[in-house]
Every structure is written in C-alpha cells, then in structure tokens.
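hey
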C-alpha cells in the first residue's frame, strides 16, 4: 500500500483505522446476484449450487464463499441466471430503485453489473440505455446484457456529452457509477493501486463533474440521479456532490433511505446523513452513494421512433415455428432485432445493440442468433425445447452433439432456463452453442 494513501485513511477513519488495516489482510468480499429476469430467488436457491448468504445491499445479492471456483464457466452463469458482483456494488441500484416502466440511463455502464441489475428491476418494461465510453468495455457490456437476457435496452459507446445532448429530459432515473481512483478495489485490482496518487484523485474529480453535468441534461423534471463510486476519497465523493449541487441549484440531495452502510464524512458542505458510505468494515469492499432529485424544468429532445418492420417471409416462418414474444422488429444489413417497444433512433452515436439480436437473413433463409434463445422475454414462447439431462450439460457446453429425435431449431434449456440452441435432424441435435463460449469443464 502507498503510504500517502494509508495516511489519508488513518485521518479519515481515526479509531477504526486498525480495523481497516485488518480487512486488508483478508480476501476480498465476493458476491453474486441472482438474475430474476431468468429465475426466481427461491427457485435458484433450491438448485443448491452454491452456499449463499444474503448481503444487506440488495435482495438479490448474496455472498459467495472465497473458496468457490469456476463459476464463470458454470451453466448457471452461461445461462444468465447469475451475475458475479462484489456485494457492495449492488448498493447503488437499491438506492436508484428503478420501477417497472421507468426509463433509465446508466451512463458509465461496463462491464454491466449495475445495468443487468437495473434490467432485472425493470423486468422487460420501460427502457434502459446503457452507455460505455471505452470501445472494448462496451463489447463486454453488450455480452453481459445478452447473457442476462435483457431486451428492452440499448447499448451505446459514446462520451456522456455526445450522448446526453441527444436525450435531454428523457429519463426518470440516471445512474452515474463514475470512473474513480478505485480505492475500494485495491485488493482485486493492482493497477488501481499502482495508478493511485493525489493528482489522480483530483483528475478523477474533474472528470466526475463533467459526467454529472451531462447526466443532468438527460434527467427529466423530478427525475432521480444517483452518483456512486468505489473509492473512499472525499474529493471524489462528498466534494463532488457539493460542487455539483452548487452548480445546479435545482438539484436537491435526498436521503438514500437504506439500512446498509453509514453516513458520509462531515465538513464537506452537504448533509452527510443523506449519503451512504460502505467501508470494508461494513461487509463490502467499498462504495459511496448519493441520491439527488431535479426540480427544474428540462427541455426535451425529440424521441424518434423507427417504424415497425414488415417481416420477411423466412423470418416470419421462423418466428411462427419457434415461438417468440410479441416483438417489434428492426432489420439492418440482413440482421433482425426485436424488442417489445418500438425501436428508437439516435443519430451520430455508436449503438452496439438495441433489443435482442434475433438472427440473420442469409440467402432468404433465417439463421437465428444465440441471443434470441437467451432473451428472457422469449422463454415462455419457445415451441420446441430440450432440457439438458445432468450428463449432457458438459457435452452441450463443450460443443458436441446431443442424441435426441427432434427436427429443426430447438431451444436448449438448463434447469428450465434458455442456455442456447441446437438444430435437430430427427436423430441428433447439432450444437449451436457459440464457439467462443465453449468450455471444457466447470
Ligand atoms: C466504475 S466503472 C462502471 C462499472 C459498471 N457500472 C458496473 O456496475 O459494472 C466506470 C466506467 O466508466 C468508464 N469511463 C471512463 N472514463 C469515462 C468518461 N470520461 N466518461 C464516462 N465514462 C467513463 C470506464 O471505462 C468504466 O467502464
């Protein structure tokens, strides 16, 4: 640990500093969230796959024992039943408290822990715009959204300023889970520790304030803005909130109104009782959360909807035979996408995905995409499916054929949840599990 950092923690924590030092010797807290888009909390617990203990941070968040390994390759993960998430990271969405039919913007969203958590709360209603500025991280965000079966979403790869200029006043709720100096991540992320300096903390503050200025524009009147970080530095937490509120007089800091964590640090010009801090002594690696409401009027960017597509015959035929939720479809360069609400058009922004990637029209045939079978909204509609037997799960995830007398495209289920698909010839099911995801063991 860097001495400058430890000196600051000593000043911040006083009597608790020794306890904090002790936590540094312990393994980091680990957790998973049950993705209720795919499976109920009780139902997942009945599978008895992992020893789970509830965390105080969200009702779908559980501690995972440090000794458990291979979860990322396990079918419960590949089918999107769970998302691995450090427990205190589940706290910000509890404060944001998304409700069905809300329009939510997650401005700094990769790899997608909080976006997939928001999506589960929205339950395939409303609209979730998940943005990530870094190209490669945006791709990871998209794959996590697909795996978790989210359909009422858009994944974009833009700077907050460029994006928010086009979506002024659209959102009921905006989450800024800001890039920060990551002091709560030092145990897991050696790079965060290596990069740490007071200058870096200050540079982070300036970036955080810029991102918040953009987020402000996207919020509708009476909309809720939640700001979170995984760092302890007051310059990036209480001070950011104080500076942001001073610059936006129509924003009000409100009580996070949750039972976990503790009040913020005093002496930074905000009501510290309203914000939440989580230190490792509070059962998670570390988070800061503040909740604000916008009272001022906000100009509204026009919402441009894309006209519903009349489906190509091959696609219509496939949908009739396979079964899928009633969706609006959109086609681009032969690829077909679907979502329950009409598609939205945004200009000059790199959009990685809107809705579910259903598949591709190739020479007037329709070739479905893996994401079609992972989409939670489609699960009740599949007309032909095959539940993997315990001894077939490894076979399927390895990419091998399954013996079954089924013909045509078939949804493959693990414990009743879509994990992929296959194509039967009446004798065997040819494996369509994506090559890049195949695993040898779990
Ligand atoms: C704390 S992480 C987000 C974690 C994510 N919310 C989750 O729960 O999985 C912050 C993200 O902000 C992105 N970021 C970095 N610089 C940014 C900037 N100037 N504006 C917006 N986002 C930025 C990073 O690439 C990173 O993915």
């Amino acid at each position: 640990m860097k001495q400058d950092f430890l000196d600051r923690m000593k000043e911040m924590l006083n009597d608790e500093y020794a306890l904090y030092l002790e936590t540094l010797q312990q393994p980091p807290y680990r957790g998973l969230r049950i993705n209720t888009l795919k499976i109920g909390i009780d139902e997942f617990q009945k599978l008895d796959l992992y020893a789970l203990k509830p965390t105080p941070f969200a009702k779908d968040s559980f501690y995972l024992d440090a000794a458990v390994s291979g979860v990322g390759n396990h079918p419960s993960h590949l089918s999107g039943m769970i998302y691995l998430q450090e427990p205190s990271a589940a706290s910000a969405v509890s404060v944001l408290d998304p409700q069905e039919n809300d329009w939510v913007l997650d401005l700094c969203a990769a790899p997608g822990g909080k976006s997939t958590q928001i999506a589960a709360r929205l339950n395939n209603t409303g609209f979730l715009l998940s943005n990530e500025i870094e190209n490669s991280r945006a791709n990871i965000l998209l794959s996590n959204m697909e795996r978790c079966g989210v359909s009422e979403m858009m994944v974009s790869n833009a700077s907050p300023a460029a994006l928010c200029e086009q979506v002024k006043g659209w959102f009921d709720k905006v989450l800024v889970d800001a890039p920060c100096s990551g002091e709560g991540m030092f145990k897991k992320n050696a790079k965060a520790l290596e990069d740490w300096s007071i200058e870096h903390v200050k540079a982070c503050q300036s970036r955080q304030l810029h991102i918040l200025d953009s987020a402000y524009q996207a919020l509708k009147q009476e909309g809720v803005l939640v700001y979170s970080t995984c760092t302890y530095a007051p310059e990036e937490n209480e001070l950011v909130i104080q500076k942001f509120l001073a610059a936006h007089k129509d924003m009000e800091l409100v009580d996070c109104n949750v039972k976990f964590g503790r009040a913020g640090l005093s002496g930074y010009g905000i009501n510290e009782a309203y914000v939440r801090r989580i230190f490792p002594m509070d059962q998670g690696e570390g988070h800061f959360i503040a909740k604000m409401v916008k009272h001022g009027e906000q100009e509204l960017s026009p919402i441009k909807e894309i006209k519903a597509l009349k489906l190509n015959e091959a696609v219509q035929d496939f949908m009739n035979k396979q079964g899928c939720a009633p969706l609006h479809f959109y086609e681009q360069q032969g690829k077909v996408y679907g979502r329950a609400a009409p598609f939205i058009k945004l200009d000059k922004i790199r959009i990685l995905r809107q809705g579910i990637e259903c598949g591709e029209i190739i020479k007037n045939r329709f070739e479905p995409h893996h994401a079609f079978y992972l989409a939670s909204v489609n699960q009740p509609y599949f007309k032909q499916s095959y539940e993997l037997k315990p001894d077939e799960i490894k076979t399927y995830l390895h990419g091998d054929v399954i013996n079954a007398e089924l013909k045509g495209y078939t949804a493959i289920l693990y414990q009743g949840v879509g994990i992929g698909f296959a194509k039967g010839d009446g004798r065997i099911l040819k494996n369509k599990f994506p090559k890049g995801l195949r695993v040898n063991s779990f």
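The radius of gyration is 23 Å. The longest strand covers residues 219-229.
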